[in-house]
């Protein structure tokens, strides 16, 4: 199994999008800082209370989109160049881990630099999504949680696009229309009229418990949940990929 070429392709193919993403993030952070500090100078108290948060959350959304756009063209190109499906799958998993570790490190350091930048200004606060959810934790807990979360969101996006790739046109329409309609309209009606809100409460409890938010805030629960999500969906991706054929 020659992993070097497909692994390098996975990483290089995402490089431009990652660079653009961080340029946008730095621009937004810089704009927020400029606005806050300029407002401080003017002395207008209504303008100087600013909270900058969610750099790691924005990264999760970006990586989910990366996962959504990482299969079809690469699959076609790899097949045409004689690369096996197993090699594609393993190289994708490795690239996911590398990208997740790298972007988790960047997210952690951006939060640290942001906090250092606002130490002398009480009107500005800088927090990451992780701290908003779990409160202050050690650097390594935050880093490991973000690695697990980033790996999970990439594979979620990848699984969705591979699943759609394997469906016929009717299946795609049925899932695209039926799933949102059921979740947004059908499930709330069933929950309200038949279950008395029990379904919504059960979902909320399951989510809170699986991410360690029930009876305290324990990030290890969230790490475990993300790793399980990554492992299960990776297995399903392989089952879908192993017999996939090239489509127009």
Summarize the structure.
Helix content is 77%, strand content 3%. With 248 residues, the chain is mainly alpha-helical.
Largest sheet descriptor: 2 strands, parallel
Helix content: over 70%
Strand content: under 5%
Global shape? globular
Low-confidence stretches: none
What class would the helix/strand composition place it in?
mainly alpha
- The average pLDDT score comes to 85
Number of strands: 2
The N- and C-terminal alpha carbons lie at a distance of 27 Å
Q: What's the alpha carbon Rg, rounded to whole Å?
A: 21 Å
Q: SSE order in H/E notation?
A: HEHHHEHHHHH
Counted by DSSP, the helix tally is 9
Strand order within the widest beta sheet: 1-2
What do you see in this structure?
Helices cover 77% and strands 3% of the residues. With 248 residues, it is mainly alpha-helical. Strands 1-2 form a two-stranded parallel sheet. The chain starts with a helix and ends in a 7-residue tail after the last helix. The mean pLDDT is 85.
Write the layout of secondary structure elements.
Blueprint: H1 4-42, E1 50-53, H2 55-68, H3 72-80, H4 85-117, E2 124-127, H5 129-134, H6 139-166, H7 169-195, H8 198-210, H9 219-241
Parallel strand pairs: 1-2
Helix pairs in contact: 1-2, 1-4, 2-6, 4-6, 4-9, 6-9
Characteristics:
77% helix, two-stranded parallel ribbon, 9 helices, 248 residues, 2 strands, 3% strand, globular, mainly alpha
């Amino acid at each position: 199994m020659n992993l070097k070429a497909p692994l390098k392709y996975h990483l290089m193919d995402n490089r431009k999008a990652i660079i653009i993403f961080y340029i946008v993030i730095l621009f937004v952070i810089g704009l927020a800082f400029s606005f806050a500090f300029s407002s401080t100078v003017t002395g207008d108290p209504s303008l100087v209370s600013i909270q900058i948060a969610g750099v790691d959350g924005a990264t999760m959304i970006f990586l989910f989109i990366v996962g959504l756009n990482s299969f079809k063209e690469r699959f076609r190109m790899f097949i045409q160049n004689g690369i096996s499906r197993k090699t594609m799958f393993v190289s994708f998993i490795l690239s996911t881990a590398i990208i997740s570790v790298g972007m988790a490190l960047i997210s952690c350091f951006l939060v640290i630099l942001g906090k250092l930048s606002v130490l002398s200004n009480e009107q500005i606060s800088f927090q990451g999504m992780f701290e908003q959810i779990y409160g202050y934790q050690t650097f390594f807990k935050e880093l490991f949680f973000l690695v697990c979360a980033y790996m999970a969101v990439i594979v979620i996006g990848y699984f969705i696009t591979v699943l759609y790739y394997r469906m016929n046109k009717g299946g795609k329409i049925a899932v695209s229309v039926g799933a949102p309609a059921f979740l947004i309209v059908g499930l709330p009606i069933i929950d309200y009229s038949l279950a008395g809100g029990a379904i919504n409460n059960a979902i909320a409890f399951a989510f809170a418990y699986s991410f360690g938010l029930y009876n305290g805030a324990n990030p290890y629960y969230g790490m475990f949940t993300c790793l399980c999500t990554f492992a299960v969906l990776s297995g399903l991706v392989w089952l879908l990929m192993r017999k996939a054929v090239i489509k127009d």
